[in-house]
Design goal:
Blueprint: H1 3-12, H2 19-27, E1 35-39, E2 52-53, E3 63-64, E4 68-71, E5 85-93, E6 107-111, E7 123-126, E8 130-135, E9 138-143, E10 153-154, E11 165-167, H3 175-183, E12 188-192, E13 196-202, E14 206-207, E15 218-219, H4 222-232, E16 236-243, H5 247-260, E17 263-267, H6 277-284, E18 289-291, E19 296-297, E20 303-307, E21 310-315, H7 319-337, E22 347-352, E23 363-373, E24 376-381, E25 398-402, E26 414-419, H8 425-430
Parallel strand pairs: 5-6, 13-16, 13-17, 14-15, 17-21, 19-23, 22-24
Antiparallel strand pairs: 1-12, 2-11, 3-10, 4-6, 4-7, 5-9, 8-9, 18-20, 20-21, 22-26, 23-24, 23-25, 25-26
Helix pairs in contact: 2-7, 4-7
The structure holds ligand LQZAQKY5, molybdate ion (MOO) and magnesium ion (MG).
């Protein structure tokens, strides 16, 4: 067999891996990147590099939950229902002040919501439940009802005890985490650096977005889609344009990208066609190839390699396959590089909203819309879900996982879905219905 025949032969005979096996092969090379400090306001969406323990109890003092009077509950026990007892007002405590006087039996302090409850007091009676009077120039508060100790007082450390773990490492920072960090006086947050992801497309047919359409050509829609997906995953995309189907060009571009970025994603040219140069290029160094076939649809031709320690993910050019391949392989890598605790798409269970009769010898990942009816989650396959179809990507909330052995699925069947990131589009279409 001459070398030309060998190339042709290896092009067609690919060893297909199961999705999980392919995922674990690449995730092994997704090492957590180094850390950096970012201002608190820039930290949403970033992943915490180290756990945060409460540096002090929170709240740091016994906090009043009402505008009213801080007093000793036992002072209200002695009375008969309806009687008034009068306590001397010895202090007035706004928020931000330290109480000047301890509360003793027979006394009370006027206090505002959020202010520090004075020593001795164990309850706060709301303003509306009190009366007031002045006796010989001395202000007094009148209480009519029995009040329990602890009422309207949030004790020190009620939310968090000092030293308690609040935010584990690997957590994606959201608004609630920001509140915790701000409350604990952390103006700069240690997060994992964003992975730099080089993206380029191959295909002689590809035009730039701004170029006018000409016969036979199409605009490169995968690269901008991948750019958005990388950004959505917390990565820092670097657009390297599109190249014509020329293996020399592709080789130098791949080399440059692998030397410059944490991850390289390409789209196009991984099947068996005459101009499918990315597949050929990766097979040249078969030693560093991780896989070039996965038992999935779309995206069966998804190919991955590791060169000089850097991952190269060659996604299919077919837009549907490119999209699915990104979510199953690129996104977990980008998340894992940021130290995310759970890099894979979450698995949910839904009710299949409509019959799905297509069967396959490979697992299908069917782009689908999610809706909620009477509190139950339904997944509806998009109208057209072929690998080559671009337009229904925008309508997808999840991917229904259709195992290869199914004989087709009926409406009402329970299905496993992989939830795609972001808001649920199906809920928008339900609005007003
Ligand atoms: N004889 C066979 N043909 C094909 C097979 C096969 O097993 N045997 N597999 C099919 C499957 S499955 C897929 S998926 C595609 C994979 O194609 P490639 O990854 O090689 O991608 P291309 O050939 O470059 O392009 C396919 C399709 O996608 C369009 N495309 C490419 N790049 C972009 C882009 N950046 N933006 C938008 N659209 C893009 C391209 O014009 C083609 O229409 O192969 C099947 N064939
Ligand atoms: O790789 Mo193709 O997308 O399986 O349809
Ligand atoms: Mg091709």
């Amino acid at each position: 067999m001459n070398s030309r025949e060998e190339v042709t032969h290896s092009k067609f005979h690919r060893k297909a891996l199961q999705v999980k096996e392919a995922q674990s092969r690449i995730i092994e090379y997704a090492k957590v990147l180094d850390t950096e400090e970012v201002p608190l306001y820039q930290s949403p969406g970033r992943y915490l590099a180290e756990p945060v323990y409460a540096p002090h109890p929170f709240p740091a003092f016994n906090r009043s939950g009402m505008d009213g009077y801080a007093l000793i509950a036992a002072d209200t026990e002695v009375m008969n229902e309806g009687d008034l007892i009068w306590l001397d007002i010895v202090d007035n405590i706004p928020c931000g002040a330290v109480p000047a006087v301890d509360i003793r039996r027979g006394t009370a302090a006027r206090i505002m919501t959020g202010a520090q409850v004075p020593q001795g007091a164990d309850t706060v009676v709301m303003l509306e439940a009190t009366e007031s009077r002045e006796v010989d120039g001395l202000l007094q508060v009148g209480i009519r009802k029995l009040h329990k100790a602890g009422r309207n007082v949030t004790p020190i450390g009620f939310e968090l005890r000092e030293g308690e773990l609040v935010l584990p490492a690997g957590r994606m920072i959201k608004a609630g985490d920001i509140a915790v960090l701000a409350a604990f006086g952390i103006p700069f947050v240690k997060v994992i650096r964003r992975p730099k992801v080089g993206i380029f497309a191959t295909g002689t047919e590809l035009l730039e977005v701004h170029e006018p359409l000409v016969p036979g050509k199409i605009r490169n829609s995968n690269s901008p889609m991948l750019e958005a997906l990388v950004r959505e995953s917390g990565g820092d995309p670097v657009m390297l344009g599109a190249i014509v189907d020329d293996i020399e060009l592709a080789r130098s571009k791949v080399q440059m990208a692998l030397e410059s970025y944490d991850l390289v994603i390409t789209t196009g040219g991984v099947s068996v066609g005459d101009y499918d140069i990315m597949g050929d290029l990766i097979r040249e160094n078969s030693g560093d190839m991780l896989f070039n076939k996965v038992t999935m649809r779309p995206g069966s031709v998804t190919t991955a390699a590791v060169r000089g320690g850097t991952l190269l993910l060659a996604l299919s050019g077919n837009p549907g396959a490119c999209f699915v391949g990104f979510h199953l392989f690129a996104r977990p890598v980008i998340l894992q590089m940021q130290g995310a605790v759970q890099p894979f798409l979450p698995e949910w269970t839904a009710v299949l909203g409509a019959e799905y009769s297509k069967v396959n010898n490979y697992t299908r990942f069917v782009r689908s819309r999610l809706e909620i009816h009477e509190g139950r989650l339904y997944a509806y396959p998009v109208s057209i879900d072929e690998s080559s179809v671009m337009v229904t990507i925008k309508d997808s909330d999840c991917l229904i996982v259709v195992p290869p052995e199914e004989r087709g699925l009926s409406a009402g069947d329970s299905v496993k879905v992989l939830k795609l990131p972001g808001e649920i589009r199906g809920l928008e279409s339900m609005a007003g219905s």
